[in-house]
Design brief:
This protein is of the alpha+beta class. Helices cover 40% and strands 27% of the residues.
Length: 124
């Protein structure tokens, strides 16, 4: 059986790829392309990119006014979560364990360049 047949069968049972889910949520195209290549992988021991974004409520289990519209898509596997601020042009932010926005990175490309540079530096 070829891969196209498998993909067709998955669609018939309602499966959506990570990028299809992300596109349906309105995520930036650059994120959708990146997620197809690297979803669910640890890019380092201190950074994990989720297979699709989740709402902040799924993590904090409470309403936090400052986090309304945030979709979490990655973690440093410790103190910070990384999210899209859907109310601010899909800007990437990091959120600390208390639910406070700590830093703003700009767009997804800028954020990933920063993260990958940090990973490269720590591996040198």
């Amino acid at each position: 059986m070829d891969m196209d047949t498998l993909k067709d069968k998955l669609r018939k049972i309602g499966y959506k790829s990570p990028s299809e889910v992300s596109k349906a949520l309105g995520c930036p195209d650059s994120f959708c392309e990146f997620i197809d290549a690297y979803s669910g992988q640890e890019l380092s021991s201190s950074f994990r990119l989720y297979s699709s974004p989740i709402s902040y409520e799924a993590v904090y289990a409470r309403e936090i006014k400052a986090l309304e519209g945030m979709l979490i898509f990655a973690s440093d596997i410790g103190d910070y979560l990384y999210a899209f601020d859907t109310k601010n042009n899909w800007e990437v932010v990091d959120i600390d364990t208390d639910g406070e926005v700590f830093e703003r990175y700009g767009n997804f490309e800028t954020f990933m360049n920063t993260i990958l540079d940090e990973i490269i530096e720590s591996n040198s």
